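Fold this: Deacetylase sirtuin-type domain-containing protein
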Amino acid sequence: MFSKTKIMKSIKDCWDKLNSADAIVVGIGAGMSTSAGLEYSGERFMKYFSDFNEKYGIKDMYTGGFYPFKTSEEYWAWWSRQIWYNRYLPEAEKVYKDLLEILKGKNYFIITTNVEHQVQKAGFSKDRLYYMQGDYGLWQCSTPCHNKTYDNEETVKKMLDEQKDMKIPSYLIPHCPVCKEEMTMNLRIDDRFVQDEGWYKANKNYNDFLEKYKDKNIVFLELGVGNNTPGIIKYPFWQMTYKNSNATYILINLNDASAPMDIENQTIGILGDISEILEKILENK
Ligand SMILES: [Zn+2]
């Protein structure tokens, strides 16, 4: 279906479009982190969570976060590992650095549903980033009684070091400094998600950027966005492309590089591994 020649031509087209665009909006989904090697299942999962697999039957890091652990000690033993091995331990992966290199000197803004902080680690400025689903590195009140988030690195490290038999010591269970209820992850999994000052600022910056370039020569570059939450990046990208005949929609995806017929002529779809494709785009620079 997708021949090599077609992919190479698409990569050249892709680079030309990025180069001539007034603005680029980059949408980054889970496929980007998978391509970076941050797999949530398989070998990598078993390396860090084989005991949880054996005792609770948990099969990957996506579902483990929703497991109804009976005690807070177990819950935080799970989460401290999930946070540490995905958020703090990994260095910035090459695929993110390549993206930074591609976008260097260009006018861009990034929206991501990923929560591992890889975009910031690669060196992108926070002012060009909307991390709308939260951040593994932040906690919030579970009630929530107030709209603030808290850095968790120090406590997470202690939880990691001091846990035994899949339980952290009780004294490490984090509590809200205001109402004393337990803290929880700052992740958009239900309506208790705290949107703090930084979140609102990023949200505004993103919307201002879209508004400013809505009828200009804009490129929507979608990287590894799957079908779990298409309403955040994919569908809006389709709609904004449809409404603006000067817009181009580029999507790079391992499994599905198709777009609706209405925007077919404005679409460049590249089926493949994001790391490899970004490397090839860089070769064109
Ligand atoms: Zn509270």
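The chain has two domains: 1-38+92-133+195-285, 39-89+135-187. The first strand starts at residue 23 and ends at 28.
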